[in-house]
Amino acid sequence: MKKLSEEQEMVIAILSAQLFHAQVKITKEIDWQSVCDEAIQQAVFPFVALTAAPYLSSKKQSVAKKIFMSAIARNMQIDYEHAQLNELLTANDIPYVILKGAASGFYYPEPILRMMGDVDFLIRESDFQRAGALLETAGFRSEKDSGGIHVGYHRTGSVWEMHRMANGVPAGIAGKRTKEYLSDIIDTAVTVKSSKGSYRIPDRFHHGLVLLLHTVSHMTSSGIGLRHLCDWAVFAASMSDREFCDVFEQPLKEIGMWRFAQLLTLCAVHYLGCPAKTWAGEADEELLTAMICDILNSGNFGQKDADRYRQIKYIANRGENTVDEKGPIRQVIHTMNRKVKAECSFVARHPVLLPAGWIFVGGTYLRLVFLGKRQLDSGKTIEAAKERKAIYQEFHLFETGGETFV
User: Fold this and answer.
1) How far apart are CA 219 and CA 73, in angstroms?
2) Distance CA 168, CA 191 (A)
3) In which region does residue 258 sit, left (phi positive, over 0), alpha (psi from -120 to 50) or beta (all else)?
4) pLDDT for 361-377, tens place per residue?
5) Which secondary-structure segment (H or E) carries 121?
6) Is 292:349 a contact under the CB 8 Å cutoff?
7) What does residue 22 show for φ and ψ, rounded to 5 degrees?
8) What is the mean pLDDT of residues 275-296?
9) Are 177 and 263 in a shared domain?
10) Is 350 a domain residue?
11) Do 297 and 311 belong together in one domain?
């Protein structure tokens, strides 16, 4: 069975103390700089910094303090930008709802310590053009709108992402059901206050669903870090067993995410000290260990291991966020077919031309390999992908009634 390093165990122990008041046994002899480095890669450094600082040299303490203060300042700035967004859209009668970041921070005992990224918000398609024009008037420049899930708007030091839908919605029947459950996410949003102002976040049901979809989307691609697990842990802990089942059991079973919610919760209980939840059922320790090792090996969005991105084509179905029983060769063929259809419009219109698309896309890839801009996959890459896929298959993602919607 895989094991965590002492430094990783310490990061987790400090997180459980910060989030759920568990007792931490401090081991002075471990490499505390490695503890800090791990926390940074997992995007949870503010929670770890104050505990770790006394065990660092004075020079490293100074560096850690600067990183900590920079993270807090960034969080305060993002908080202020959420209030700015609220004022701008509300004044112009554009309904919206915040996704992920600040909405997740709401459930933490000390939201200011939860590291923030961008300002992500969802609006209706009918308001997309008008909202975009407002942002440009406010000094933002936009990416090209290709009709994707979101459009990014950039201003010095700020990135706001305007979403058409939440990340991670699958294809097929499961996707249709998911969209139905998300259809009133803006209507049911609630207004919350922070030190910098007010903004609108999803109600509990929609926030939980968005969290699960987002986590699946990244876990089955480049990966997630401990921040994602912490987001789910504090959210799951905010509801009693009865409340959670009343709100989530039927919808998640219909979508095919109930088992994933159970396993994510069991992992949070086992490692982060989240209060036990009877609705989460049971799982063997080996699977939970494999899950936490996968999270720790990834780091936030896979920053600890660049090879994870190359593993994706052997793991999940491109654009569908599903993991099925395809072997490595069939999985690559499936992924390549999706890639060719996405990149070659003539193939999408005329499927008989798929072989020509393979030649075009494959030739482009080989050219990039020749120029040193891409790498050929090694046996190690394929083996690592197989290990990850074995974990994710246990989630039974988007399976309902014995069927897999892929």
Assistant:
1) 28
2) 25
3) alpha
4) 777 877 877 778 778 78
5) strand 119-122
6) no
7) -75, 160
8) 95
9) yes
10) yes
11) no
Give the integer Cα–Cα distance in Å for 76 and 55: 27
User: Are residues 168 and 30 both part of a single domain?
Assistant: yes
Q: Is 1 domain-assigned?
A: no
Query: φ, ψ for residue 188 (rounded to 5)?
Result: -95, 5
Q: Which of 233, 367, 336 is nearest to 291 (CA)?
A: 233
Reading the block at residue 282, the tokens are 């049971």
What tokens appear for 95 in the block?
A: 């309904």
pLDDT digits (tens, 9 = 90+) for 75-112: 999 999 999 999 999 999 999 999 999 999 999 999 99
**Helices 285-298 and 258-272, packing angle to 10 deg:** 80
Residue 122: strand pairing partners: 97, 163
Q: How far is residue 130's CA from residue 360's CA, in Å, rounded to a whole number?
A: 39
Residue owning tokens 């876990």: 219
Is the domain of 284 the same as that of 322? no
Residue 24: both structure tokens together: 């931490």
Whole-angstrom CA distances from 381 to 311, 366, 377 are 6, 18, 6
Q: Kindly state whether residues 372 and 240 are assigned to the same domain.
A: no
Taking only the tens place, the pLDDT of each residue in 239-273 is 999 999 999 999 999 999 999 999 999 999 999 99
Range of the structural domain that residue 136 is part of:
6-302
Per-residue confidence band for 148, with pLDDT thresholds at 50, 70 and 90: confident
Report d(CA 214, CA 167) in Å as an integer: 6
This prediction has a pTM of 0.91
In a domain, residue 228? The reply is yes
What is the Cα–Cα distance from 89 to 65, expressed in whole angstroms? 36
